[in-house]
UniProtKB/TrEMBL annotation, chain A:
InterPro entries: CO_DH_flav_C, CO_DH_flav_C_dom_sf, Diverse_Substr_Oxidored, FAD-bd_PCMH, FAD-bd_PCMH-like_sf, FAD-bd_PCMH_sub1, FAD-bd_PCMH_sub2, Mopterin_DH_FAD-bd. It comes from the Bacteria. The keyword Flavoprotein applies. It comes from Nocardioides eburneiflavus. Keywords: FAD, Flavoprotein, Oxidoreductase. GO terms for molecular function: FAD binding; oxidoreductase activity. This is Xanthine dehydrogenase family protein subunit M. Residues 1-184 form the FAD-binding PCMH-type domain.
Automatic annotation (TrEMBL), chain B:
SUPFAM superfamilies: 2Fe-2S ferredoxin-like, CO dehydrogenase ISP C-domain like. Pfam families: Fer2, Fer2_2. PANTHER family: OXIDOREDUCTASE WITH IRON-SULFUR SUBUNIT (PTHR44379:SF5). This is (2Fe-2S)-binding protein. Residues 10-86 form the 2Fe-2S ferredoxin-type domain. It comes from Nocardioides eburneiflavus. Keywords: 2Fe-2S, Iron, Iron-sulfur, Metal-binding, Oxidoreductase. PROSITE patterns: 2FE2S_FER_1, 2FE2S_FER_2. CDD domains: fer2. GO terms for molecular function: 2 iron, 2 sulfur cluster binding; metal ion binding; oxidoreductase activity.
Length: 292, 166
């Protein structure tokens, strides 16, 4: 249970970090390390070098950016690469802008892990059994990445390539994630079943709905731990049987903790429940009005 | 079989329990191992080594963190508190330690350092937890003796002691 040897660099600037990554094909980025260090210890990963970004300046922010003129485009929560899950969870501003963040984060491991683990790191670790990649996908967020070649924004729909595989190039660092704010008339909800609260979910489900005049105009549901990549299913036209629509697109698998049949059962039970919660949330927030 | 070349060592200055420890470690040295083997602070226990059990929990800048999921080289800028650093300046037991003694909060004692550090930070955040909140506070730590009832009692007792009740 000890990592294999690797070279180690703790750069003081982003430019230095990017140059190091560009020169080392086998390098990995270390931020919180709460997923990476176990992989190193179990020797499931053996990078030639770790580039520890914990000393980089200006990456610990959790900020809410106001919307642009008119349609609110661009409003949402911006999370820097060194913001810990606990920082995001503690941000009342972030919770007010996009309540699904806190709803999901309270299921991300235990407080002790959240004190060190970073939200951006969790996203690019791209674990389909983790909550935040699915939340980013459901909300159509994005991740900004930097390399010596410049910066680019990767939309959530293009971020997840496979099990524990993101579409970042080996020389790119994810510097910031963007989660869009909850729009007017929209509602969200999250539930998961785990062996112990905070452990990896057997199945986790989040829903995002949009309503107008009390009627649901759009409904989407995202799933944790039922596929190799985060999956989102549009159930707008299947509100009477959202679980059936979801299961038509999901292929739950067996593992040591649950059978495929049990996972399918959990999808069947949780999907309508979480969807109802989200619709309730949308109506509640519409009635009360938004604070921000 | 050839022996690989000597691994590069890093000079690391660790700030632990108010003291400075200058250690030389390979980059792959886990902080838990550095504390035990390089600093001689064997109060921090190593259980699962992949972040599940919580036995190795220490405080990093006052917040509970798994020391098996941090590298020693990554801890240079941090103020670390291990279970050895929880006692009062005069050597007497801290409220949390006293409460574990009062309520039989430990059986074999292996998980105890992780519980003591976790609860110390938990009570700093929430000095007057309900029983539900006390359970939530310790939910990330495993006791293989399954002594949770008395650990929950210890959290509540420590809260009383912290408020000055005798």
């Amino acid at each position: 249970m000890k990592p294999a040897p690797f070279a180690y660099l703790r750069p003081a600037t982003l430019e230095e970090a990017l140059a190091a990554l560009a020169g080392q094909q086998g390098a990995k980025v270390l931020a919180g390390g709460q997923s990476l260090v176990p992989l190193l210890s179990m020797r499931l990963a053996a990078p030639s070098m770790l580039v520890d970004i914990n000393a980089l300046p200006d990456l610990g922010h959790v900020t809410v950016s106001p919307g642009g003129a008119g349609d609110g485009a661009g409003e949402g929560v911006r999370i820097g690469a060194l913001a810990r899950h606990a920082d995001v969870l503690a941000s009342a501003e972030a919770t007010a802008s996009q309540p699904l963040l806190a709803m999901a984060l309270s299921h991300v491991a235990h407080p002790t892990i959240r004190n060190r683990g970073t939200t951006v790191g969790s996203l690019v670790h791209a674990d389909a059994a983790a909550e935040m990649p699915m939340v980013l996908r459901l909300l159509d967020g994005s991740v900004d990445v930097a390399s010596v070649r410049g910066r680019r924004t990767i939309p959530a729909a293009e971020l997840f390539a496979g099990p524990l595989e993101s579409t970042l190039a080996h020389d790119e660092i994810a510097v910031e994630a963007f989660f869009p704010a909850l729009g007017p008339g929209a509602g969200v909800a999250f539930q998961e079943i785990a062996r112990r609260h905070g452990d990896y979910a057997l199945v986790g489900v989040a829903a995002h709905v949009e309503t107008a005049g009390g009627e649901v105009t759009r409904a989407r549901v995202g799933f944790v731990s039922v596929s190799d990549v985060p999956v989102v299913v549009d159930v707008t036209d299947a509100l009477d049987d959202p679980a059936g629509a979801a299961l038509a697109e999901l292929e739950p698998a067996d593992d040591i903790h649950a059978t495929a049949a049990y996972r399918a059962h959990l999808v069947k039970v949780l999907t309508p429940r979480v969807l109802a919660d989200a619709i309730h949330h949308a109506r509640q927030t519409t009635t009360q009005g938004r604070s921000a | 079989m050839s022996i690989p070349g000597a691994e590069q060592l890093h000079d690391v200055r660790l700030h632990v329990n108010g003291s400075v420890h200058e250690v030389q470690v390979p980059a792959r040295r886990l902080l838990s191992d550095a504390l035990r083997h390089d600093c001689g602070l064997t109060g921090t226990h190593v259980g699962c080594e992949h972040g599940v059990c919580g036995a190795c929990t220490i405080l990093v800048d006052g917040r509970p963190v798994r020391s098996c999921l941090m590298l020693a080289v990554s801890a240079v800028d941090a103020e670390i508190t291990t279970v050895e650093g929880l006692t009062e300046d005069d050597g007497s037991l801290s409220p949390v330690q006293q409460a574990f003694s009062d309520c039989h909060g430990l059986q074999c004692g292996f998980c105890t350092p992780g519980f003591l550090t976790t609860i110390t930070a938990g009570l700093a955040d929430n000095p007057d937890p309900s029983e539900e909140e006390a359970r939530e506070m310790i939910a990330g730590n495993l006791c293989r003796c399954t002594g949770y009832q008395n650990i929950v009692k210890s959290v509540l007792r420590a809260a009383e002691l912290g408020k000055g009740d005798e």
